[in-house]
Write a structure and sequence with these properties.
CATH class: Alpha Beta
Structural class: alpha/beta
Helix content: 25-40%
Largest sheet: 8 strands, mixed
Radius of gyration: 19 Å
Shape: globular
CATH superfamily: Vaccinia Virus protein VP39
Order of helices and strands: HHEHEHEEHEHHEHEHHE
CATH architecture: 3-Layer(aba) Sandwich
Oligomer: single chain
Number of strands: 8
Strand content: 15-25%
Number of helices: 10
Length: 310
């Protein structure tokens, strides 16, 4: 998704034109209901500016979505196959894998093609329908249904060798509850990996400047409210990298995190100005900026604590 500043920013910065945003005093059940309403009406898309004329849910549309996603994440996520720096495809053959938040099914397809037995859950019908349609068109096996990952699921207990969630769990009302459930759902030597939004990022700074300074809401909105109004979805929690690692370590034996982001995070300027400035910024400097202030915290957590020491 896009914002006024870039065409492929890290945490997508939008103006709230798709609906209301979370407030500090919203009850948590209302927050989760707001999440579902938002994503049912505004499904995730990598066509940020509505440029494609392809028919949604056609084979060509899926391929275009995949191309866009692979391209914007390539510099930190891919060596040969999209996201192979983050997903251990070879180790997942014939293993049970769960994806939380399926979007239109790109990552689920990558996992299935690697030989994993894929289950996907999402808060919305729109995502599960998009993913199921993709698998139908491509003749791939997989099971997808609407389920709130904040809720317990007895048949998932100790089942999955790998759980993947890309930019999803931080949108939930009770993210720690999801991490707790994931730890319960993984095998004793299982892992959880993916991405959440980074609080100490240029993308978060842009959101604060826009809401507090440009729009004059410094005395009206808390820091969290300013971030909620500047990102995709009804709500999104931004985590300092060490705080996210600490949360993971409350449920897993080991956890590692890395700060990165889209290349636009390195030059957080309005699109026209960025196109003039970005070519003058060296690749090395961009990499250093992204490693400290990129919009993403990628992570991996291993061995749920319920399984005991290795």
């Amino acid at each position: 998704m896009a914002d006024d500043y870039g065409d492929e920013s890290g945490p997508a910065m939008i103006t709230g034109r798709h609906g209301d945003k979370r407030r500090d005093d919203d009850p948590l059940d209302q927050v989760q209901a707001g999440n579902r309403l938002w994503w049912e009406s505004t499904p995730m898309s990598y066509d940020w500016r509505g440029e494609t004329e392809l028919v949604p849910l056609s084979l060509e549309w899926y391929e275009e979505q995949d191309r866009r996603s692979a391209e914007v994440h390539r510099h930190f996520a891919t060596d040969r196959v999209p996201f192979d720096r983050l997903i251990p495809y070879e180790a997942l053959r014939d293993k049970e894998v769960l994806e939380i938040g399926t979007g239109s099914g790109f990552h689920a397809e990558l996992l299935a093609r690697a030989g994993a037995r894929v289950t996907g859950i999402d808060l919305t019908e729109s995502a599960t329908e998009r993913t199921s349609k993709r698998f139908e068109l491509k003749g791939l096996p997989g099971s997808f249904e609407r389920w709130d990952a904040e809720q317990d699921r007895a048949e998932f207990e100790g089942r999955f060798a790998f759980v993947w969630s890309w930019g999803v769990v931080h949108h939930s009302a009770r993210t720690a509850r999801i991490v707790r459930n994931i730890a319960r759902w993984t095998t004793e030597d299982g892992a959880f990996a993916g991405m959440v939004y980074h609080r100490d990022s240029t993308a978060a700074l842009v959101a604060l400047v826009r809401d507090w300074l440009i729009r004059g809401n410094l005395l009206e909105h808390s820091l969290d409210e300013a971030l909620w109004r500047g990102t995709d979805g009804y709500t999104a929690r931004f985590y300092p990298a060490d705080q996210w690692r600490d949360l993971l370590l409350g449920f897993f034996s080991d956890a590692s995190v890395r700060v990165t982001g889209h290349e636009t995070d390195a030059v957080p300027l309005p699109r026209g100005l960025r196109r003039k400035v970005a070519p003058r910024v060296s690749a090395g400097l961009k990499a250093r900026i992204l490693a400290r202030a990129g919009g993403f915290v990628t992570f991996r957590a291993d061995r749920p604590l319920w399984a005991g020491p290795a």
